[in-house]
Amino acid sequence: MVGADEEISAADAPTIVELSADDVLRARTDAVANAGLGRKAEHLLEVRNLSTHFFTPDGVVQAVDDVSFDVGYGETLGLVGESGCGKSVSALSIARLVPDPPGRIVSGSILFDGIDVLKLSTEDMRKLRGKEIGFIFQDPLTSLNPTLTIGYQIGEAIKEHMGLSSKAARERITELLAKVGIPRPKDRLNDYPFQFSGGMRQRVMIAIALSCDPKLILADEPTTALDVTIQAQILELIQRLSSEFGTAVLLITHDLGIAAGMCDRVNVMYAGRIVETGTVDTLFENPRMPYAWGLLDSLPRIDDVRGDRLRTIEGMPPLLIAPPKACRFAPRCDYARDVCWNSEPELTPRAEPEHSARCWATEPDGWIG
Amino acid sequence: MTATVTPAAPKAPERAPHDPANLIEVDDLRVYFPIRSGIFKTEKGHVKAVDGTTFAVRRGETLGLVGESGCGKSTIGRAMIRLRDATGGSVRFDGVDLTTLDPGQLRKYRRRMQIIFQDPYGSLDPRMTVGSIIAEPIETHHLASGAAKDERISDLLRLVGLDPNYVKRYPHEFSGGQRQRIGVARALAVEPEFIVCDEPISALDVSIQAQVLNLLTDLRTRLGLTYLFVAHDLSVVKHISDRVAVMYLGKIVELGPPEQLYGAPGHPYTRALLSAVPVPDPVAERKRKRVILKGDVPSPVNPPPGCRFHTRCWLYERLGQPEDCRTIDPPLKMVADVPDHVAACHYADEALKTDVGIAHIDPNQVRRGTPASALASLVAEKGTAEQTPVLAAPAFADLPEPTGEVSATDAFSTEDPSSTDTPTDRVDPF
Fold this sequence. Notes:
The complex is a heterodimer of chains A (about 375) and B (about 425). Chain A has about 375 residues and is α/β, with parallel strands linked by helices. Chain A has helices spanning about 1-10, 25-30, 30-35, 85-95, 120-130, 140-145, 150-160, 165-180, 185-190, 200-210, 230-245, 255-260, 280-285, 290-300, 340; strands at about 45-55, 60-70, 75-80, 105-110, 115, 135, 215-220, 250-255, 265-270, 275-280, 350, 355. Chain A has an eight-stranded mixed sheet, sandwiched between helices. A four-stranded antiparallel sheet of chain A has the order 2-1-4-5. In chain A, strand 7 (about 215-220), helix 11 and strand 8 form a beta-alpha-beta unit. Chain A starts with a helix and ends in a 12-residue tail after the last strand. Chain B has about 425 residues and is α/β, with parallel strands linked by helices. Chain B has two domains: about 20-240, Rossmann fold, CATH 3.40.50; about 255-350, no CATH class. Chain B has 14 helices and 14 strands. Chain B has helices at about 75-80, 105-110, 130-140, 145-160, 175-190, 205-225, 235-240, 260-265, 270-275, 280-285, 315-320, 325, 350, 370-380, and strands at about 20-35, 40-60, 60-65, 90-95, 95, 115, 195-200, 225-230, 245-250, 250-255, 335, 340-345, 390, 410-415. In chain B, strand 1 (about 20-35) and strand 2 form a beta hairpin. In chain B, helix 3 crosses helix 4 (about 145-160). Chains A and B meet through helix 11, helix 12, helix 13 and helix 14 of A and helix 6, helix 7, helix 8, helix 9 and helix 10 of B.
């Protein structure tokens, strides 16, 4: 609840590290509040000053650098950005799935439902994963085991985490498959992943993710490998099921259109940092960071009158080995001034509630009003 | 590959005479792939990837071809430049039927048509330098040698916005966007008239996509190229195309100018596609009337009888499952008396009465992005809001029998090679 915190403590909290009450979110997630008997914390997920680095022969890649954000109970938070901006590594860090070596979470804390994830033993972490946190990955073909039936793969998590008997598990699997819209679920339990189409496989993944009633789903580009009509089906399914079960979703996507349609709030990431955060309406209506402008400008849109040239963001994102103390977007920014090259801006509040940006130019005393 | 086998291919209707305004004319094109199984690899059936399509690409236009995976759009692109042999029908390039040419005759035409592939990682040989990748087509067609060839390679690299000093580098030293530029340079090396762009930006990041799209648009204007732009992204196709064709299961189901096709689509499938396209605008997203198509695309081995889309069609259900949808394959017919706009649906008029699929597409929507105040500050600071340095025109004069409409005077603008995509000349501490 980065933005919400700031609405309340904007006067004395220039950075997002401070925590405070969060009424805005609670109002938004009424449905969840009813089901939220097991609430142990203010937010379902509180990520503070998370840094995940990769130790490579070429140097230390600071893939995620001092990132803080919250996900409320039942909320859908979007992490958007281009390849290599750190959005996937953020999600992997939450699940402690960062490949080590070369990756390591070097600092920060991650509170999941009041539990400090980074302090859990490997065994306890394993219990959390799959049960409390479900996963939907981009490529259902490579994330499902080709040699096991889908019934077995869904049942694995159920038996492991919920302690159901084989018979009860079977019933639950059938029920789950029906929920995610797989026709004739009883007959298809014993089918292998290759017998399903891409969209159907992604449905199976969603069934696995939901199998133990998780509180949070990490969806990493869940529809990138799918056709547009199938993508619409899957997004609709995620949206419907997450509101039905009150599941929070951390949605990682490069597609701003998907973020606009699915999310309550959106974080824009660039070069390992969150550069802008806000409610979905604020962020798309009044973005306050030149990178966000560039992303929106460079997208051909279906509601455009047929366009001429697109305004583009020149150049490429910087290498994340030993980034200098400067705004990381400065080399590609049309508006950069000396201050941008000499010091890195903090993520500070903007005029609207829950809205922060990391940009000297759009600060209250900046040069772009 | 199966040119001799034409199973179930009905007699092609009399094809229209060659119209000089058309660069390419495709008549009742069919491309079938045999399914073989058993120890004798006997044919058990055919995947009808392209199953009877007729259309033309006009000189100097960009024809967008959209559809979902497996609908046959890439196969059409390849069959049009004869990278795949047609099972039936014909492809005429400048009035000459390519499907009947022998390899020697075909070679002359190969120079006039090129292709840019989707995967900038897989389509460049990792063992060849950039220079030799671009030199290959020049040598194959004996267009230049020695210093003239090197000069042309430098020109081509400059043309696509890369530093000519990169000739000795290998593909792995470049980013995806840069590799795609190399692919474009290779296609342009033989000065083609027609380029099939097969999902050229699908593998790239958003900001890099825009750079490559702008490059393709600039090159088309600059060199008078004709494109077939194959893509699955309807927004991109709308942006770049003069006309758009929508494919479903091996057939073109709708074809028209983008304003008509996206504004008043006549085919229910086009509407279903449009309804699924996300718009980066939460307000528009809430207005969306989503058509959720049932199930997956049917198998192209045994396409449904009648209209191929009727098994998943929302309009068919809404109209009470009319019989002709199941029995008669609808031909392309003019939609709402708009010339150039055709759709293959018996009930296109009914589709037009609804706002299904287009409710969230409002062309009067204010586009958000860079705010006006920021643009104004750019103008105040630099005197112009545009950053489009002018690039020197390439010297193509020494090419034998130059084709295309190269005008040496018009200023060609693209990204400045020294500031774009060039990790080596990053001027900053990064």
